[in-house]
Specification:
The protein is mostly beta strands. 8% of the residues lie in helices and 43% in strands.
Length: 477
């Protein structure tokens, strides 16, 4: 059966591509001053995520990198003046272009552009209150591509895991929301922190730094959490407390509004999603929470090869929907995870201290197969930066991932190419490789390739293997 893309979106991706190209070639409009030690192109790559945002670094209030690391520069001293008073404003746009060459529901182009504007306020610089940080994050996203059959989705791959963690819900046409707004206070020389407000839970929990540049969603968090974790594009109001020294041992616990996964069996409706909402459903919650705890251990081999391991557990309380034949829903879904990363080699101690070198990483996740479509998952691989002579800011990565679905068809059924339900069980396995070319301190290109075996699972497999090519073009303004 042949499937054609459904033209519901008239946006032309070449408009965005030409806009980015013009910006990348217009640096002469924004003259640069002398370079500093904070210049990105002279440091190991920090593996940027287009959509997972966190407060600006404290050192930037005293050593502002605006002139080197942004296209617009210091804006005639405006950014430096704001930083003097404890205010940082950062703007990033990333153009994501993907092509599914075969397999899944359909072959075709899929792409979109996340735009993020963040505001960081340091209360010590602003009015002398030590340890306080106010953070706001506005996110906008628009698709470049058309919708596809059989489900009128913007994603033709059929992947359950998600081919790109930076895409919004494939059924929604656009995103425009205040994604994060929270206040964090640190005590006892940063040995204890407390944060409250609307947050992205994937910043303090489940984040594997060395995997952040991969596009497949499993690089960011185990797919046992696909329906539950309050992260982009469904951040939520929560409380996070952390204690300990990140260089040795630390622990943290989070209590988040889990209304995005709340299910009403009488109506068959899930939600409402928290991404575009404020704190109302946190203060008037109906028993739908996402609670998580994580303990982290850190060490060094040979004095400079950094390593870490995290162990965590979570539970989604209240009634949630299944993706199988059960229409009554299930309650209180549990899970746990283990994650790690270890620098294996670095050209020098200086590069290693700045996050460079060859790193081995991974994450293992588990959940109850009688309540969760995903029984367990594993992602693991290598990433490297700061190791290529003359290209210290470039990065390269290779990742393998496997997701095992529950055999219980009441909990999960795959989707066939015509949109009807297919067999349960099975798995989704993927390989991904990328290269980041840091063209300027404020711009990068990232080509990559992704192969997905048995997208969406099913035993036997419901869909043919995907082969996707992608290109990211990112600009810091």
């Amino acid at each position: 059966m042949e499937h054609k893309s459904i033209s519901r979106n008239n946006q032309n991706p070449w408009v965005q591509i030409l806009l980015i190209s013009a910006l990348l070639t217009s640096s002469a409009l924004f003259p640069k001053e002398s370079f500093s030690e904070l210049e990105k192109i002279k440091r190991p790559n920090q593996y940027p995520s287009p959509t997972v945002k966190q407060p600006g670094e404290r050192e930037h209030f005293d050593n502002q990198p605006w002139q080197e690391n942004t296209l617009a520069g210091d804006l005639n001293g405006l950014r430096s003046s704001l930083a003097h008073w404890g205010v940082q404003i950062e703007v990033q746009y990333v153009s994501i272009l993907m092509g599914n060459t075969r397999g899944g529901f359909d072959a075709g182009f899929v792409g979109g552009g996340p735009l993020g504007v963040t505001l960081t306020v340091d209360t010590e610089h602003l009015f002398g209150w030590e340890g306080g940080t106010l953070f706001a994050d506005w996110e906008y996203f628009n698709w470049y591509s058309d919708r596809f059959s059989p489900d009128n989705s913007f994603d033709p791959s059929g992947s359950f895991v998600g081919v790109n963690t930076n895409f919004i819900d494939a059924q929604k046409a656009t995103l425009n929301q205040l994604a994060q707004l929270y206040y964090q206070q640190s005590f006892f020389d940063d040995q204890f922190t407390l944060a409250f407000g609307k947050m992205d839970a994937n910043v303090p929990f489940l984040a594997v730094e060395a995997a952040a540049a991969f596009q497949n969603s499993i690089a960011m968090y185990t797919p046992t959490l696909n329906a539950f974790i309050p992260t982009y594009p469904n951040e939520s109001t929560g409380i996070v407390a952390a204690i300990g020294n990140e260089e040795r041992i630390s622990a943290k616990i989070g209590w988040f509004d889990g209304t995005s996964a709340a299910y009403d069996a009488a109506t068959g409706i899930t939600g409402p999603s928290t991404g575009s909402r404020g704190p109302e459903s946190f203060f008037e919650n109906q028993g739908n929470w996402w609670v998580v705890a994580q303990v982290d251990f850190a060490w060094r081999l040979k004095d400079h090869l950094q390593g870490s391991m995290g162990i965590g557990a979570w539970v989604q309380t209240g009634l949630v929907a299944t993706q199988g034949t059960d229409t009554e829903g299930v309650s209180d879904v549990p899970g746990w995870y283990l994650q790690w990363q270890q620098t294996l080699w670095s050209p020098s101690q200086e590069i290693s201290e700045d996050g460079g070198g060859l790193v081995y990483f991974g994450q293992l996740g588990w959940s109850d197969p009688e309540k969760n479509p995903v029984h367990w998952s594993l992602m693991t691989g290598f990433s490297a930066t700061g190791i290529i002579p003359g290209r210290i800011a470039d990065a390269v990565g290779l990742m393998f991932a496997h997701t095992q679905f529950t055999q219980n068809t009441e909990i999960y059924e795959s989707i066939l190419i015509d949109g009807t339900t297919g067999p349960g069980g099975g798995h989704e396995t993927s390989l991904e490789a990328f290269y980041i070319f840091q063209w300027k301190s404020w711009a990068y290109f990232q080509p990559g390739v992704m192969w997905i075996h048995s997208p969406g699972g099913g035993s036997p497999a419901a869909l043919k293997d995907d082969l996707l090519l992608y290109l990211l073009l990112g600009v810091d303004f």
